[in-house]
Structure formats: structure tokens, C-alpha cells
């Protein structure tokens, strides 16, 4: 394991002999986070703390810094800048992805809006004077000829759509630039499904359809509903059958094709929306997805996040990192690879269920077995040999591995036995997380500023429902 130089502590190179970097599937299998992500680095740092109070203060500072990054239009480091949420990763990581993706969308919207304003100024200048000092060549403007012979400016046009031409004017059909859809995390998807089942509402779908119609009209002056259907929903359009030479009258719509029966029904929603829609490019429409509102909601949720919803994803993310690092070393070890993959399969099967948190002790025990393979493989091989000689059962072997790993990471059994039964919650939490930090580097600073240190150790309630002890 190596933290790359150059100040980018979030980059991690995990190599295995001559094969180089290996694919890390386990973090996604257990709903964790990518090994080189910010969330895993946060897990490492929080996992190195020995008190719940320090963990709480550090997380609060993380959220404060994320809010500052958003207000200053900076991307969160260690998170892809423009990827839709990965539903195979934990919800925390998905929310981090949404924040960066929202920032990318805002930047694209600003660029598109400025570009459209320039196009409108150029077109207006050309119309008024015929010659003007412009920054955009006139031939970069797109026009469509109407039935009356006039030229109409195409706004928000992306590119020609196949060889399709408009039925009324014969001009090329252009695909419009449309509004981007919502960014759906797993909790939003669940809420949306429940809302639709409870109310039967399809309002969001209608809003998107109306937006697409407005963008299509702006990009294709002189178009009709049939043109939009041919672009947006080809199955709802029937092309005319080849002529067989028979002589009989036919209506004009039959000679060029026709809409499907559902589109021709009286009161069809598509027809009603088309009749009320105006030609408005997507960049000038009312946003369907408000990036500022969404990010503010995420940051507020992160501030009020219950401890169980925070430490679960952090635990799984750190667990995934440990196995990725171990796989890079143990995959090619003929003596230990079989045992390692048995441990890996157990962790994947256990963590995929919704009740994995009831088996944290077993997961930690298996992890400590893998940790022992990394730190002192000779002890593992010795234990395996003794197990074979004495026909030791699997459960006994696991307990033996656990005992070995506890000794290797420096835990004092005598001190453990002498500790009171009612140890405080900080010590219990630390005992389950500290072993995960033994592979990793010492605590790193995530941002320029260090998290604040408390002035007293007395219990202090905070607004998000946590208690600092």
C-alpha cells in the first residue's frame, strides 16, 4: 500500500507483483466505497480515533468543509466530478457523488446559457445591420426554412437526427439539447416508488415530457406533433406502406405515415401538452432539477445524520479497503490464497444482507484472520498445520486465528480480562474499529484546517442528536 506523492493523499496504489493494480469488486459487493475515495480516507481517520467525541467532532468538521467547498464551487476531492450515483456503493458515497455532479451541471448550464446569449446577439445583429463585429461566425448559426419561405433560428439544437425531415417543411430534424434528469440515490428511488404507488401520480414524467417538447420546438421551427413523436417515441409512428400501384384515394396523413392508435385517441395527454407548449430551449426553461436545493438538502441530512447511519457505511468502506489491500498480496500466495478467498466469500455473503450489523463480531474475527495472514503468515500456516493434524473444526480454527491476530496487533489479554464489564461506549466502539487502522498510514489531514479540539471532556449534547462524551 502506498500513498502517492505530490500532496494527493487520496490516491492509493495497490499492486500485486507483476500484475499491477487489481480490480476491486468487494467494496461494491458489500455496499462500501471505492478504495481510493474520500469516504474511505475519512473511514481511516475516524477509525484511528479512540473516542466517540473525537469521531463526532471530526465528522462535523467534514460536513462544514463540504459546505464551504460547495459555496466556493469547488469539487469534493477523491470523488468523481461528473458521474451519476453508483447504486452499488453505500448511500454516503452516492450523496458525495451527487454533490460533485450537481456542481458539474451548474457549470455546464452557465456555459450553455452564455453561448445561447451570444447566438441571440449575433442573430439580432445580423438581422439589423447585415454586418457587425461579432465573436461568433455567422455560419455557426442554424436556421430552418418555414412554409412561408422565411428563415427561423434554431435554438438549443444539438445535431441532426438520423435522416429524418419535418413532415410540413421538409427541413432536417435536429435533436434538441434537453434538461438533464434527476440524480437518483437509492433513498430517492425508494421514496419515488412509494409515492407513485401511494398516489398514482406521474407528474414528474409529464414535466419532463413537456420540457422535451419545448426544447424540440425551439430546435425545429415549423415542426408538428408527428415530428416530435417520430423523434421521441418511434414505436408510436407507423411509416406508410410501399405503393402497390392500385388507384384509390387516401388522406394526406396516410401517404406520409400516421400516429399510433393511442396517440390518436381524443384527450391524449401528448396532444394536450403539445398544444400548450412553447418553443423554449432547455437552458431557458424552469429547471426540473434544482441543484442548489438538492445539495442543501444533502448537507443538512449529513449534519443531522444518526450515528448508526454514519458508522455502518464507514465500517463497510474500511472493511472493503482492507480486503482489497490483502488481495493484492495474498491472491498469488499458494499457501494462503484459498483461506483468504474463503474469508472474502464469507464477508461478501454476510454483508449483502440487511442484518449484517448483527454479525459485526464475526466479521471482525474473519477480518483479523486476514490481517494475521498479512502481518505474520507463518503463524497462520502453523495454525493451519496443527488444525490438519488434530482435525480441528472450522469454528475452533477461527477462534484460534482470532486469538493470534489479537496478540499480533498488541492487545493485552490480561488488561482485557481485568477491565470492568460496564466499559463505556467509547471503549467498545474503539475495540471494534481500531484493528482496522493497523494496516493503514497514520492519521492524515483531509483539508487545510484541522478539526477543532474540545476544551473539556464532559458530556455535551449537540444539535444533531449526538452526545459528546
Structure overview:
The chain contains 18 helices and ten strands. The protein starts with a strand and ends with a strand. By secondary structure, the chain is mainly alpha-helical. Residues 235-258, 411-469 are annotated as: Disordered.
In short:
InterPro entries: Rab3GAP1 (IPR045700), Rab3GAP1_conserved (IPR026147). Residues 235-258, 411-469 are annotated as: Disordered. This protein is mainly alpha-helical.
Which characteristics define this entry?
single chain; 469 residues; mainly alpha; two-stranded antiparallel sheet; two-stranded antiparallel ribbon; 18 helices; elongated; GTPase activator activity; Rab3 GTPase-activating protein catalytic subunit-like isoform X2; Rab3GAP1; Rab3GAP1_conserved
For the biggest sheet, the summary is:
2 strands, antiparallel
| Shape assignment | elongated
Structural class comes to mainly alpha
| Number of strand segments | 10
Q: Kindly provide the radius of gyration, computed on alpha-carbon positions and rounded to a whole number of angstroms.
A: 31 Å
Secondary-structure element pattern, one letter each? EEHHHHEEEEHHHEHEHHHHHHHHHHEE
Strand line-up across the major sheet:
1-2
Counted up, domains total 2
Oligomeric status: single chain
| Sequence stretches where pLDDT stays below 50 over 5 or more residues | 1-7, 16-23, 131-138, 247-253, 403-455
Average pLDDT: 78
What's the N-to-C terminus distance?
34 Å
State the helicity in percent bands: 40-55%
Helix count? 18
Assess the beta-strand content as a share of residues: 5-15%
GO molecular function: GTPase activator activity
Domain Rab3GAP catalytic subunit conserved: 154-303
Region (Disordered): 235-258, 411-469
Biased composition (Polar residues): 241-258
